[in-house]
Specification:
The protein is mainly α and 96 residues long. It has one domain. It is built from 3 helices and no strands. Helix 1 runs antiparallel to helix 2 and helix 1 packs parallel to helix 3. The chain is elongated and about 60 Å long.
């Protein structure tokens, strides 16, 4: 299998993992486990991207879309992580 095919397979798997992470009504434990799995998978595939050389335009577009989805997912995670802190601040303010 060529590097280009490997990259296509990797992108497809990452897209599926991102779909699963963006599913609604997911527990924080499941979300964290999914993020950890995605991180481990990307780490394991880093060598394929380093050795691949030039990407096709289609693969470049897919990579850009994956990066955009990862950025949105990071923002979503940061927002959700801030909720308990913000709630604690609100409760403390109401207690004063």
């Amino acid at each position: 299998m060529s590097d280009t095919n490997n990259i296509g397979d990797i992108l497809q798997r990452v897209e599926q993992m991102l779909d699963a992470l963006q599913a609604p009504a997911q527990s924080s434990a499941d979300f964290k486990a999914g993020c950890d799995s995605l991180h481990a998978y990307l780490d394991a595939q880093a060598g394929v991207f380093a050795a691949a050389g030039a990407l096709s335009e289609q693969d470049k577009t897919r990579v850009a879309a994956v990066v955009e989805r990862l950025a949105k997912l990071q923002k979503q995670a940061e927002t959700k992580a801030a909720i308990p802190t913000d709630l604690q601040k609100y409760i403390a303010e109401q207690s004063d």
